Structures are given as C-alpha cells and as structure tokens.
C-alpha cells in the first residue's frame, strides 16, 4: 500500500506476533510485484484500495494458500479478497499472548530497487532494525521533542527503518506523506513545526 500510518501499524503488529513482513515498492506491477510476493514466500497479502488493480493482475498466479486482505471501502475488485476492516471490527478487545521473539529473528524483508534485474529481498532482523535506528538517533542527537519530516516511501530503508525507528524506539514524532511534493515541501515543514529534515541527494536544490 502507499504511505499511510496503517502500513506501519500492520508490519509492527506482525512483528509483535512473530510474523515477518515484506515491504514492497507500491510502484511495482505484474512480474516484478509477483516476484517480490513469491520471494518472501508470503502466506497473505494486505493491500489498500489504490493497489487493488495491481493485486488483481497477479492474484491468479499466487498459491491458493496465500490469503488476500483488502483495506478500504466499497467492493474489492480482487476475487477472494477478504475485508480487513470487517475482520478488525470483529477482533477481540483483549491482547493475545505474544510469542517469544528473539533479537536475532527476522522482522521483515526490504527489497532492492531492481535496477540490475528483479528486486532482491534483504533480510532485516529485530537487532538490525534497532541498531540502524539507534545509530542515527545518537548521531543526530534527536529527542522525543523533535519532529522529523521524512516523506520518503515507507518501503525504503531510510524511512521505514531509520525514520520510523525514531518514533518506535525514542518517541520522536515522524511526519509521513502519501507522496513527496517539491512544491509543498517547505509548507509542510512549517505546518507540522518540523525540527529535523531528512534530505536525500535529489532534494538538494530545495
């Protein structure tokens, strides 16, 4: 799915129960998208409304054991997909027992850009997530009073791990955007009272 808080809640919730998430580029389609799902040996796919057509294109090639969960309103165009919103409304209110998860266990897969072929899955453990986010936190001297503006895609290491890691581990507020907007960049920074910007090479002219 595209950048939204729900995505973060889902893959951190999966990590809580010991499941492994796969952070897939939402721009991928057909062969590349199918490859990423298969490479992760996914047992389920959670997708949002804007990704329904892309999932519909590959759904017939997914194994029968792979469940499809749709997040959004209206009728889902993907045959066999189950409304995740309805399931969540029916879920119990008590907290289920959490399995014992080791620091070295896998937490999710992050994919390469695929410039030299199909995207390749890089393994991220709980420890790798922690140490990468912690290193940036210490290096920049961030605190829980900072507001970090980081409109990169959540499937990207710089945002999903280094950026969101500041919120999970240290309580830093992180501003995420559905899509990066050069024209709205500084307006967003002022609107959200951002104190820290994470800038990549292509944004230097800003």
TrEMBL record:
<dbReference type="GO" id="GO:0005789">
    <property type="term" value="C:endoplasmic reticulum membrane"/>
</dbReference>
<dbReference type="GO" id="GO:0044539">
    <property type="term" value="P:long-chain fatty acid import into cell"/>
</dbReference>
<dbReference type="Pfam" id="PF00501">
    <property type="entry name" value="AMP-binding"/>
</dbReference>
<comment type="similarity">
    <text>Belongs to the ATP-dependent AMP-binding enzyme family.</text>
</comment>
<dbReference type="GO" id="GO:0004467">
    <property type="term" value="F:long-chain fatty acid-CoA ligase activity"/>
</dbReference>
<dbReference type="InterPro" id="IPR000873">
    <property type="entry name" value="AMP-dep_synth/lig_dom"/>
</dbReference>
<dbReference type="GO" id="GO:0005324">
    <property type="term" value="F:long-chain fatty acid transmembrane transporter activity"/>
</dbReference>
<dbReference type="InterPro" id="IPR042099">
    <property type="entry name" value="ANL_N_sf"/>
</dbReference>
<protein>
    <recommendedName>
        <fullName>Long-chain-fatty-acid--CoA ligase</fullName>
    </recommendedName>
</protein>
<keyword id="KW-0547">Nucleotide-binding</keyword>
<keyword id="KW-0812">Transmembrane</keyword>
<keyword id="KW-0436">Ligase</keyword>
<dbReference type="GO" id="GO:0005524">
    <property type="term" value="F:ATP binding"/>
</dbReference>
<keyword id="KW-0472">Membrane</keyword>
<keyword id="KW-1133">Transmembrane helix</keyword>
<feature type="transmembrane region" description="Helical">
    <location>
        <begin position="7"/>
        <end position="28"/>
    </location>
</feature>
<keyword id="KW-0067">ATP-binding</keyword>
<dbReference type="GO" id="GO:0005886">
    <property type="term" value="C:plasma membrane"/>
</dbReference>
<dbReference type="InterPro" id="IPR020845">
    <property type="entry name" value="AMP-binding_CS"/>
</dbReference>
<feature type="domain" description="AMP-dependent synthetase/ligase">
    <location>
        <begin position="1"/>
        <end position="200"/>
    </location>
</feature>
């Amino acid at each position: 799915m595209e950048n939204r808080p729900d995505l973060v809640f889902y893959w951190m919730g999966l990590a809580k129960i010991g499941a492994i998430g796969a952070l897939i580029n939402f721009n991928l389609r057909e062969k590349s998208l199918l490859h990423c799902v298969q490479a992760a040996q996914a047992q389920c796919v959670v997708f949002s409304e804007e990704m329904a057509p892309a999932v519909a294109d590959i759904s017939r090639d997914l194994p029968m054991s792979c469940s499809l969960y749709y997040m959004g309103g209206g009728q889902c165009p993907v045959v066999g997909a189950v409304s995740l919103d309805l399931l969540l409304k029916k879920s119990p209110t008590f907290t289920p027992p959490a399995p014992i998860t080791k620091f070295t266990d896998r937490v999710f897969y992050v994919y390469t850009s695929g410039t030299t072929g199909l995207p390749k899955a890089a393994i991220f453990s709980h420890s790798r997530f922690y140490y990468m986010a912690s290193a940036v936190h210490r290096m920049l001297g961030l605190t829980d009073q900072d507001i970090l503006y980081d409109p990169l895609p959540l499937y990207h290491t710089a945002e999903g791990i280094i950026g969101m890691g500041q919120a999970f581990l240290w309580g830093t507020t992180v501003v995420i955007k559905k899509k990066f907007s050069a024209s709205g960049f500084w307006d967003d920074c002022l609107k959200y009272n951002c104190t820290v910007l994470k800038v990549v090479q292509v944004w230097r002219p800003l």
